[in-house]
Amino acid sequence: MGETFDLIVIGTGSAGSSAASRCRVAGWSVAIVDSRPLGGTCALRGCDPKKVLVGVAELVDWSRRMAGKGLSADGLSVDWPALMAFKRTFTDPVPAQREKGFADAGIAVFHGRARFTARTSLEVGAQTLLGRHVLIAAGAKPQPLRIPGEEHISTSDDFLEIQRLPRRILFIGGGFIAFEFAHVAVRAGAEVTVVHRGPRPLARFDPDLVDQLLQSTRALGVRVHVDSPVTAVEKRGGEFIVRVSHQNTERTLAADLVVHGAGRVPDIDDLDLTRAAVQHDRTGVCVNEYLQSVSNPAVYAAGDVASRPRPPLTPIAAMEGRIVAANLLDGNHHRAEYGVVPTVVFTVPALASVGLGEEAARKQGLKFKVRHEDTSGWYSARRVGSPPAGFKVLIEEESRRILGAHLLGPHAEDVISVFALAIRAGLRADELKEMTWAYPTGASDVAYMV
After folding, report:
1. What is the DSSP letter of 309?
2. Closest to 80 measured CA to CA, from 42, 52, 44
3. Model confidence pLDDT, tens digit, residues 125-142
4. How is residue 151 annotated by DSSP?
5. Which regions of 247-359 does DSSP assign to beta strands (E)?
6. CB–CB of 391/350 below 8 Å?
7. pTM, to two decimals
8. Tell me: the pLDDT tens digits for 229-283?
9. Is there a contact between 423 and 361 (Cβ–Cβ < 8 Å)?
10. How far is CA 436 from CA 112, 373, 378, 394, 431, in A?
């Protein structure tokens, strides 16, 4: 017959772990399933290990920017094998820690790929699991590019595990993964190329600040090609030849490593969702406002597999896991709110955004003023030798509320949360301007941005 549980969770990332823990604390019997090492993308293959690499790149970059400004650091460089070893001190302990944490909480762990056999029944290898409810939180995977030679392309997971940095690296795509890893790799001494099929990379961010960052990225030596879809990858001897189309002409680019950074899709293809009568499409499991399957009320979805119009961010996945748990325990009374979610691309310096951009604000018919300035000459940027810096803040005309904020430069990844709190609390620009800030800090610039 198999083992029976109140809740079966597929995925041990932020969404799945959050929901499993809350339901177990409430006294439910819970099973959690993963075919990969326990911990999910953020802890093992995403946010956390990536930020370790970015931290070292920032240090190298800072020392180079400050050369001749009171610092002598000739020869400072990235030791890639040592950096990978340091990164592993964060990632290697995670699976065992998660396994112990689940066991201590009384959550049953199953290793293997799950597939549905009925509406709430699953097989994991030779084991059968029966649930009252199922939460699908299996995360995302690189989207298929469907081009000749796709098998030669490495993933971002692979990049985080390479022990020797290749001399020439080409990133396909112009999003978070490509730009963050490009900024790390170029500062570690690699020759880096980014090839993006669209007219502008980092489409989720303010176009004016992206232009600033793009100019700075190219100044570092990163070759960025836009309007250039990749049509094929060929392995030729010890290198890869990447065929790129641009304005109806084809050119070839050579690299020692080609990395997929062209977007991700829900990792649900082999779950046999049709056997569970779970409606889905290419964007994920179709859910209602309570994150419940629209076709099978016993099934919920959260994180990257849920078909919802919101950015694929770890804090959102964790929040959705909490929402699912609350709805399972209390009935469908809780809805996810996505209005004020700061997002950051961890280039050096970082680019951050929260709230509305200009185009979205205009579509809503809002009347607003735009505060926009290149702040490369401001004290906060000059004292750390950071040339690319700027901001754009949208302020509603009548209420003086902050509608959106977009930052590039030192401390952007932290200061953006100040604006997120201001938007959530409905603070007026005048209140931020009158605030007495700790000075000199990144946050003290806020008064001059509004």
Report:
1. S
2. 52
3. 999 999 999 999 999 999
4. G
5. 249-255, 257-260, 264-266, 280-281, 284-285, 299-301, 343-345, 350-355
6. no
7. 0.94
8. 999 999 999 899 999 999 889 999 999 999 999 999 999 999 999 999 999 999 9
9. no
10. 54, 22, 19, 22, 10
